[in-house]
Amino acid sequence: MPSSEASIRLVNTLYSDHQPWLLDMLRRKLGNVDNAADLAQDTFARILSSNEAGPLREPRAYLTTVAGRIAAQYFRRLALERTYLEAIAHLPEAVSPSPETRLLVLEALAAVSRVLDGLKPHVREIFLMAQLDGLTYPQIASQLEVSVNVVQKAMVKAYRHCYDAVYGD
């Protein structure tokens, strides 16, 4: 792993050499220059904070991958926000959450989404079937045509991942 100073120099070079290209690519994909600028900035911030930047043979492919992940998180957050706002839209004003409560709920939903994104797809599916759908392990195993042992192991992985996300490694 490069030193922190070397990492900063590498990211600076990556930024100066490829930021305009990344911004243009994101603008074309998103159709909005402001969102593209935010996601481009988040891409370089993520690379810098990962402290893993080293000499890259394909810097644009790397930037595309990192930016794509950030864009996917952005769109998932927008979808969560839209779904939550649609769910509360029908509530009478007297019981509708305050703007502060709405923001707290949206932040919590985004945090949960980030944690779930860290699970492998089959583990996430099993976890959600148990937690959201209330299915038993045998029911999940039957629906997915796997053994109960597979379901149990997936749930252990999911619980461990969630624990680590909340309490640290």
If you had to describe this structure to a student in words, what would you say it looks like?
There is one protein chain. The mean pLDDT is 89. This protein has 7 helices and no strands. The two termini are 20 Å apart. 79% of the residues lie in helices and 0% in strands. The chain has a domain at 1-94.
Largest sheet: none
Helix fraction by DSSP (H/I, runs of at least 4): over 70%
Give the structural class.
mainly alpha
The number of helical runs is 7
Radius of gyration: 20 Å
Q: Note the run of SSEs as H and E.
A: HHHHHHH
Q: Which band does the percent of strand residues land in?
A: under 5%
Mean residue pLDDT:
89
Q: Based on CA inertia axes, which overall geometry fits?
A: globular
List how many beta strands DSSP finds.
Answer: 0
Low-confidence sequence ranges: none
Distance between the termini: 20 Å
Summarize the structure.
Helices cover 79% and strands 0% of the residues. It is mostly helical and 169 residues long.
